[in-house]
Amino acid sequence: MMIESWNPPLLHDYSKLSRLQSNHDCSNDGVFMMEELELPMIDLNGLKSGDEREMVKCENAIAKASSEWGFFQVVNHGVSLDLLRKMRKEQMKLFKAPFEMKATCGLLNNSYRWGNSTATCPKQFNWSEAFHIPWTKISEAASYGEFTTLREVMVEYTTSMQDLAKSLASVLVRKLDHKDSEIGEICNENSCFLRLNHYPSCQISQEIFGLVPHTDSDFLTVLHQDEVGGLQLMKDSKWVAVKPNQNALIVNIGDLFQAWSNDVYKSVEHKVMANGKKERFSIAYFLCPSYDSIIGTCKEPSIYKKFTFGEYRYQIQQDVELIGHKVGLSRFLQ
């Protein structure tokens, strides 16, 4: 299969890992056609209606979905649909740049990645490319090179996503009878990230991960995906496919919120499957604390030991280097 010049050398890297597969138990299991399910849909107009009953109903729906699914989708979320369209257009233009430019020109704080450099077998490989950009670098004009129109849109986009993420996180904090200001003290713009994802079409197999199974290591993630689909999550001990909805944003709980809530809210394993015919685009906003923020639980007795976000990220890096995958919160159980 010919890889276009704007796509990274995914086939080359994957083929090298495939030749090693006979020495590893790394087959992709549990990959099959499945029914697409609708995530819980929440209309956020309830938070702004001024009607106390509607607000409580909306907040309860957010907390319920976070506890039972770990995922939900929102409409009337306050992020302009025109802004979402402009951001998608700029994202596609960026990923259509030559691979050599994306990989070597220092674009967006030199944040470009593809595949998985630590993978030792096909099961650990991501058929995708991404820019994972810290908030602090998003406004820097020097990071954009010739992509000058991307900067203005991205600054507006991240500001809108930050407002939405903190609003939802505040609801979840209040539902556990804590002050919503607590989330603001832990998470601020300087510690958050934006990830631009591109999943090229993959004609060699329907069992290749666009993004390997994982949980998010943040407090909260807000995702905007296109119409192609491919996102799957673990529900009731089985994988289910998420039906895409371009007009809704997907929200999921991260590991830190699960720890802080003492397992009330669930950080759920999810993955993306590659598509044999279509490329896929998505954008994820990660609400994160500063690296020295202590992640304690909201009530006692606590399931987890206290740890900082920096300690958590370091442990994840160590696990990936030593055993090839993230272990996660189980490392910090009491």
From TrEMBL:
Keyword Heme set for record: no
Keyword Zinc: no
Occurrences of domain Fe2OG dioxygenase (ranges): 188-289
Pfam families in alphabetical order: 2OG-FeII_Oxy, DIOX_N
Keywords noted in UniProt: Iron, Metal-binding, Oxidoreductase, Vitamin C
Family recorded in the similarity comment: Belongs to the iron/ascorbate-dependent oxidoreductase family.
Protein name per Swiss-Prot or TrEMBL: Fe2OG dioxygenase domain-containing protein
Organism whose genome encodes this protein: Solanum tuberosum (Potato)
